[in-house]
């Protein structure tokens, strides 16, 4: 970590919708690591606000935001299904604005997410998919106890290149 940074991490509320969409759209093209590309997220601020309201009250879905000077610079999420047979599985996603990489914020956000998941009465398995070449993200997941379950060969295509994807999980 190069220096300390003043950052607040908290659960997202509907009023964050505009900034959340802005960050998702901006970070979609900052790296080749996101599934989203230049096409963007493609939903309106109103739809996003509705989703955030429903997520806020969910037992197996959560979104956390990281704020620096009131600006959303990071998003970490758990997505769980409403189907009873798979409601115990939470899919993890995380992104930090590239300008704020390397300050420990990715780790901090994942730790907050894991605390929330531990307290959830529904979740018992967390899983995620990460490109094999994304060594920075894989390092954080491994550090926090995620295990490699499988390599999904040609799991994603970026700029015409077929890339392997790691399936990682953590039982909680
Ligand atoms: C992955 C991501 C969230 C990490 O955020 P961050 O704030 O930079 O993370 P941190 O500062 O907490 O930690 C970075 C860690 O990676 C390590 N690291 C840095 N570069 C690395 C590399 N090339 N290979 C392995 N580890 C690396 C650092 O040493 C640090 O580890 P440490 O805390 O044990 O010293 C951020 O890079 C990001 O948003 N990437 C784009 C989106 C993405 O890839 N999301 C995950 C998709 S599954």
UniProtKB/TrEMBL annotation:
InterPro entries: Acyl_CoA_acyltransferase, GNAT_dom
Signal peptide: none
Sequence ranges assigned to domain N-acetyltransferase in this UniProt record: 7-172
Coiled coil: none
One function term, GO molecular function aspect: acyltransferase activity, transferring groups other than amino-acyl groups
Keywords for the protein's UniProt record, in alphabetical order: Transferase
Listed name of the protein: Protein N-acetyltransferase, RimJ/RimL family
Organism annotation: Alkalibacterium subtropicum
């Amino acid at each position: 970590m190069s220096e300390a940074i003043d950052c607040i991490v908290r659960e997202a509320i509907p009023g964050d919708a505009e900034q959340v969409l802005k960050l998702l759209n901006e970070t979609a093209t900052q790296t080749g690591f996101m599934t989203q590309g230049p096409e963007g997220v493609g939903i309106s601020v109103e739809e996003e606000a509705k989703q955030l309201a429903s997520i806020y009250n969910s037992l197996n879905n959560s979104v956390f935001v990281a704020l620096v000077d009131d600006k959303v610079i990071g998003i970490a999420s758990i997505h769980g299904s409403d189907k009873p047979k798979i409601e115990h599985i939470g899919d993890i996603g995380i992104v930090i604005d590239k300008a704020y990489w390397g300050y420990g914020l990715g780790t901090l956000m994942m730790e907050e997410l894991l605390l929330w998941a531990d307290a959830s009465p529904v979740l018992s398995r967390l899983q995620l998919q990460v490109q094999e070449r994304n060594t920075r993200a894989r390092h954080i997941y491994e550090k926090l106890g995620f295990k490699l379950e499988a390599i999904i060969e040609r799991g994603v295509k970026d700029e015409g290149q077929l890339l392997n994807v790691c399936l990682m999980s953590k039982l909680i």
